[in-house]
Amino acid sequence: MTNEQPLEQEQGEAIKAVETIFVNEFTNGVLDPNKPMLGPLRDGGTIIANTAPGCWGPMLTPEIRGGHEVTKPVYIEGAEVGDALVIKIKSIQVTSIATASGTDEALSDRFIGDPFIKVKCPGCGKLHPQTKVQGIGKQAIRCAICDTETAPFAITNGYTMAFHHNEKLGVTVGKEGARKIALEANSYMRIPENSKQNPVVSLAPADLVGVLARMRPFLGQLGTVPSKAMPDSHNAGDFGVALIGAPHEFIVTAEELAEHKTDGHMDINRVRQGATIICPVKVDGGGVYVGDMHAMQGDGEIAGHTTDVSGIVQLQVSVLKKVAIDGPIILPNEDDLPYTAKPFTKEEKRLARELAEEYGLKQLEEAFPISVVGTGADLNIATENAVQRAAALFDLSVEEMKNRITLTGGVEVGRLPGVVTATCQVPKSLLKQAKIFKPVKQQYD
């Protein structure tokens, strides 16, 4: 599918690709391949983005149609359907001073089919109404037309967290601190000026008080535009299941979801500074977008939400020609790899050679680690998806892939209910065959 990106100036001259693009614009929560993209960006160029908080803010804002508020996609020069994009995360800086989060409950009288997508005011019945923040507390988000409380979600157990200026830790505050932050919500959250979201700290939750948490910021959303319009939070195999047979305009079949999604919504805490992500290109130009930065998160995001923050992200993007992948591949920082997947030291290699010689083995594999993302309705389906993607990538049987993952890596949970990574060490010869050896070598050699 070719998107309708306007790549020519009025005079008919092609727009020259730029080396660096600064992004401070956002979607309305929908990733649409037929909408114009920013750019074009030169192959190997840099994206610097001011990202808006994900999850809770957009979830409290009926105007936003997808559950998140990600940056407008960037067109990458030379990226064509069937290629891949290598995205190196050069830096992540949290700009929020505080945020709020917690477990959620969807309020059934305030949406049709999906509370992330089709919100209605329970008072006047208007779909996707504009809202206002009136005061602070649970009833603060109100319809701008009829003044009815309108947010489609409620926090069932929540907290407000303040961050230390050194960006190393956060502390959940009490009612007094939460009130102070709520009264100057945009200032504390540093919400970008082009964002439409209502700040979650306006609700002033304070059920969890005095908890210390270490900061390790990462990107919950980083990827490329799907080849069919879909809500941003649903661009994954677990959230996307809600689109199958849905009672709204983003309805898809199971086959369409599998074909068009790019799994950009991962919530995998290893997608952080220093990591490299290889993403599929399913529309010309790729359409790189980013958002949903989190200050910290344990594996699984078991609460359904974590600390959404504003931040500044720097990405370097390169094109891999004719590398047709179905979903993302992560090259994590070495510290984030399972113990069994970490690159071998010189001493370990020496010992392995000695052992091999003892048994008459003349050659050992030279291997490097990779993590293949899998998604699905639950963790079993997501794991099966990751293993099948890895086997297809390297032209191996599923059985051999399972053995390699078991011996030299592992399966790790990114997000419940269904995002995982299958990590293992892969021989150099197979990486070359799959045409991804260069970025892997650059990450680990």
TrEMBL record:
Pfam families: FmdA_AmdA (PF03069). Gene3D superfamilies: Acetamidase/Formamidase-like domains (2.60.120.580). InterPro entries: FmdA_AmdA. SUPFAM superfamilies: Acetamidase/Formamidase-like (SSF141130). PANTHER family: FORMAMIDASE C869.04-RELATED (PTHR31891:SF1). This is Acetamidase/formamidase family protein.
